[in-house]
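Budget justification note: compute hours in this period were largely spent on complex prediction jobs such as the one shown. Inputs:
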Amino acid sequence: MTELEDEQRLRLAALADVLIPGGAGLPSASAADVAGRWIDRTLAADPGLAVSVLAVVTGDVEDPHMHMKSVQHEDPVLFERFAFAVAGAYFMNPEVRRRFGYPGIAPLRLPAAPGEAEYYLEDDILAPVIERGPTHRLGDLTGS
Amino acid sequence: MTAPADVLIIGAGLSAGIAAKHLAEAGFGVVCLEQGEWVDPGALPGNKPEYEIAGANSWYPDPNVRGRSLDYPIDVSESDLPLYMFNGVGGSSVLYGGIWARAVPSDFRVRTLDGVADDWPISYSELLPFYEAVEREMGVSGLNGNPAYPAPYRVPLPPAPIHRTGRVMAEGMNRLGWHWWPGTNSIPTQRFGAQYECVRYGICRMGCPQGAKASTDVTHYPAAVSSGAQIVTRARVAEITVDERGLANGAVYIRDGVRHFQPASLVLLAANAIGTARLLLMSSSGRFPNGLANSSGLVGKRLMLHPYAASVGLYDQELEDWLGPGGEHIGSMQFYETDQSRGFVRGARWSLVPTGGPLEAVAKWKLSGEEFWGDGSADRMRQSIGRMIQWHIVPEDLPEETNHISLHPTLCDSDGLPAPKVHYRVSENTRRLVDFHLARTLEAHAAAGATRSWIAGRNYTSGHNTGTAKMGDDPETSVVDRNGRTHDVPNLYIIDGSVFPTSTGVNVGATISALAKRAATYLVTHRRDQVVAS
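Corresponding output:
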């Protein structure tokens, strides 16, 4: 697995904040530790993303905003891959997921409650569909 | 020497599973050759924090993205879209969404009704008993009485909740006076045979860690094996062989670099519309110089892919849009039938499907006309994650001989066998059809109260690969007969989606399953009349 160096993590944090500066009750990418354990988990899940992440975070980054703008303009595919890795790391953070209302750190077992299917069909919501009748053509051609 | 099989099935996917179980339980000695392996349910990503990363990589439905040696590469440089499939026990049913949709009567009479393509040699009513039979085998859940189908329309298991998403959209559809119906999915809402109850992970397209969704590695192969069927994994078939009478007598396959021969009395080909055509073309010989069973010249041609499209809407309320089954929450066939005034023929089925996770919601912004990242991205996340409804539309894709697969001159799989090359262009009829339907879905979003909606994509790959070995009564214009038997080789059957004369406008799993059940039933019923290899 690719291990980012400390300098690369610092640059990643700054660049990821350009994409996800936070606000509206959400942390920024760096505050969500995107450049720490979550990028490690992301790259472990898809080692192929490391090439794109390294390509963006390696070298001098004087102005993170200009750097990201340049990557997006010159290599949109690389930008998309980098943004995917950053977003993947961000959304893996349990606190971020919680703030979006997800019930757990991953999809959870949430079997339907008794009566739940019927509940969403209350008030005869299907009645007009049934009253309009068949939508299919030519029942007389169903025979062989 | 390897013992001969009564029935050799090439592939161990959806159709093969249905046939293998049926035939093994009827007493046939069945061997399946499968180039992939059994799927370890514990390895599936859907209930792990990395699920969306792995679902876009090692569990992505495009074999070119997965890049496993168990898959074969596909050259799509001359195709408008990539191809999806999965090689392993269960095949593409491991990674499909589980939306279960029968075709309708008019789908079998396209030439008669609309003057295009071809009628099927069988009708809806002929296939109906087999739809119903496989629905009982696949744990299909839904609500009885859908007026999109001839009455009585019955489903074995009760429906899943349509959720907030379905309810909001249903109210919008009612305002427009349009058809909708609670989702029908091959995902049981209660314990059903080998399948567990759906727990609504919402990630069906990455494989079901719960063992609920009907993939045949769960629903069929264990029972087939219990009845004596043998599943040989990592077995990549290189050639179907024929005897001196021109009958299929087995297959040469490669396992761990070693070539083997599996003799058989009867051969069933179930390798997906791409793999089946590829193997027939690879099995040319002096007797069959243009490929096996290809006297019509149609093997590999008429490829149909259902290039699906999507629209999304954003809503003010929290919708829990990630909740399964996914699968569909509701479906619509309002615009399924042909109306010539629209400027195209045929139609599409719509499915309201969960977004699955935040990465997928973010990905939908690409075509919104607004940059997602940067200042304001938090607001855009807040607006969309958990608050998005998406319509997927499955457009009928009419057959054209120019859309075809061929054997690649240089690209090979990990055993040195030629890869398929796909030549596929979306037709003008399909383009118009998709434009019309997308426009209607935007109207549906507006009626349902979306604060904003947009077209989220065209030419998505569906994995609905069909048409490359057409079914028909005339050997000059088709590859197999009404029972799936090849016209040229009377003990070689094709039982997968290759045989579709037209693609229908619905998800193809139900019809593939019903056709496989029908072919297997025919084989059992006519076992004494069946010519076999010596």
